[in-house]
Amino acid sequence: SDDKTIKLWNVETGQEIRTLKGHDNYVYSVNFSPDGKTLVSGSWDNTIKLWNVETGQEIRTLKGHDSVVYSVNFSPDGKTLVSGSADNTIKLWNLGTDWGLSDLMGRSCAWVRVYLQNPNSGVREEDRPLCDGIGGKSS
């Protein structure tokens, strides 16, 4: 939202449950983890934040984009996060670490789709060159 917060609502009653505060600029994208216990947010402050849904506490801040984070989502198993930014990169984040697995150019990269659909598929970090030529070289 424009006020730099995330509001959680009870959709049955229309009551606000809580307000999450922590971003330094507009919040642009939010998504729940597959188990519903974690919320991820992307912001105009170039960061990604993970939140505990039950307590409203910030779990972690991920930094690595050089511009607005427009899109955030979890893999089906909840172990990987994907983020897209106005800096023309897509990053995969291993939630067991604080570093991005890969900067990928081009949102149609087959490597991203295969990895997110099945992290046990045998696709590895070394397979990044599969994205070469789609919007530029992967880095």
TrEMBL record:
WD repeat ranges, renumbered to this chain: 1-19, 20-61, 62-95
One Pfam family of this chain: WD40
InterPro entries noted in UniProt: WD40/YVTN_repeat-like_dom_sf, WD40_G-protein_beta-like, WD40_PAC1, WD40_repeat_CS, WD40_repeat_dom_sf, WD40_rpt
PROSITE patterns assigned to the protein according to its UniProt record, in alphabetical order: WD_REPEATS_1, WD_REPEATS_2, WD_REPEATS_REGION
Protein keywords: Repeat, WD repeat
Protein name stated in the entry: WD40 repeat domain-containing protein
Lineage: Bacteria, Bacillati, Cyanobacteriota, Cyanophyceae, Oscillatoriophycideae
